[in-house]
Every structure is written in C-alpha cells, then in structure tokens.
Amino acid sequence: MHEKHETVTHKNSNRYRNQSDHAGTLATASDTHGSGGRPDSVRGVTRDEARNMVAALAAGRTRWLADTVSALRAEGVWLVGSLGSGRGDEWSDVDIIVVGGECLLNEALLTLEMPGNGPVGGGYVGAMYDIGSLPLWVDWYLWPSDAPVPRESRLLAGAGVAGSLDLSETLELVGRGLPGPAPDPDVFALAMLPLAAKHIARGDFEKAAAMASMLDAPTDVGLGASLSVVLSQIEGNETAAAAVRRYLEVVEAIAGPGPLG
C-alpha cells in the first residue's frame, strides 16, 4: 500500500498510550524469548509454518491476480508498484490500474475509499482479501481513459502504452481527486497494521515506526507489541481483524521481536 495523502485522525487518539498490559501478539523480547534468541513459535505459529504461510501468500497473490484480471471488463489493466516494476517480494501488495472499468470488491473483507489518492475523473479504493493463508491488500486505481499510465507499469490485459512519469508524478500531472469523507478510523487501522508489520519483516524499522505513530500506537512497549495494542482496541470487522492478527503473528514468528520488541 502506498502512503496515504488524505489525513485520518483516529477516533481513539491517545487511548493506546501506556497500555503495555494489552500488548499480546507481537510481544517484547522478555515475553517470547525465555532464555534468549528468536522464539521457535509465537501463539502456536512456528517459524517454518510462518514461512510456509508467507510463501502461500505469494502463490495465492499470483492466482488471485490471474483470476481477477480475467474477470475485469476494462480498456486496460495494468500492474503498477513494486510488482509491476519487477522489484516486488513475497510481502508485496498488489497495485492495479483499471482504465475505463471498475474494480472487483465483492469478496473484499474491507474497503478503504480515498479519492484523493487517485486521479481526478477516476478514483482509489484499497481492499483487503482473504486468499487463504494471509490477507492480501490491493490498491485499486480507477483510471480515466485519457490519462497517461505511469512508467514501470506492466500491461496485463487490454491495450495501451506506459508513459514517462512514475505514479506519484503522473497523479500530480493529471490531478488528484477531491478528498472524500474521512474513512472509518478502525478500518483505516486494519488496513495499515499489515503494512507496518511488513516493514518489520523487511527490517525497515523506521518506516514501521512511522506507521505505528500514525496509528497513535503506544510508546512504552516495543514496536511490534504496539501494533498488537492498536489491533486489540479495534471494534467490529471481526473477520478482517482475525486476518490481521494472523498476519502479525506470522511476522513475529519470522522476524522475532528484534531490537524494537
């Protein structure tokens, strides 16, 4: 998922502060290591099982993408972002540009509509899908037919030629949509938590910390544990919350608490 350009103020701002008693899934080193070293399992998920789940996520992502592209009715369907440019890894989300068509949201666990992240005359919807082992996040960009397509985009269906600017530059050129109403803060948090955890898995603690701060995560526990506190305070969206919890557990089993807990 790309960084959000619309501002979201969490309705529970500051309620996560100093709540170390509730930090469950991504625990501190003393909670999970015992005699030291990376834990063999976290809440029943072993490292090997977690790695298999991440591999299954990548394989499921490929199947989901093939099935989805074949079902779309559009002038063009493009894969952008890290997967489109060939820089993706097993943790990568899916970024799709749909030219002259609509996105498929029927099977989404939750959706996050933020028009200001998409082009004027089009739109943006983020969506979470349960594809088996772990949830998959998809950034849908609804693209006007007369707008240039960003460079490093891979054509999956239809016709067209990529332009010379990257996604952000292209959006600045064609103009962004008007910001809509602020999304539900809990839905926003559920969307952002896997992104923050993914940065932990990749060892990019600075980005993970920035995401945690945006969610008003507590500062008196480790970084990973703070994400679990945020998750524990979310109301509703039980299915999506369970999928996110599974994602956090897998990241913990693979990465371990590390220097930030």
Describe the protein's architecture and organization.
- The chain has one domain.
- By secondary structure, it is of the alpha+beta class.
- The protein has a 6-stranded mixed sheet, with helices on both faces. Strands 1-2 form a two-stranded antiparallel ribbon.
- The chain is globular, with a radius of gyration of 19 Å.
- Helix content is 38%, strand content 16%.
Provide key terms for this protein.
alpha+beta, 6-stranded mixed sheet, 8 strands, disordered N terminus
How do the helices and strands line up, and which of them pair or pack?
Layout: H1 29-32, E1 41-42, E2 45-46, H2 47-71, E3 76-80, H3 81-85, E4 94-99, E5 110-113, E6 123-130, E7 135-143, E8 154-158, H4 167-174, H5 185-202, H6 205-214, H7 223-232, H8 238-255
Question: Short description, anyone?
Answer:
With 261 residues, the chain is an alpha+beta fold. 38% of the residues lie in helices and 16% in strands.
Rg of Cα set: 19 Å
Beta content comes to 15-25%
**How many E strands?**
8
Distance between the termini: 24 Å
Q: Strands of the biggest beta sheet: in what spatial order?
A: 5-6-7-4-3-8
> Which percent bin holds the helix content?
25-40%
Order of helices and strands: HEEHEHEEEEEHHHHH
Mean pLDDT, to the nearest integer, reads: 85
Can you tell me the overall shape? globular
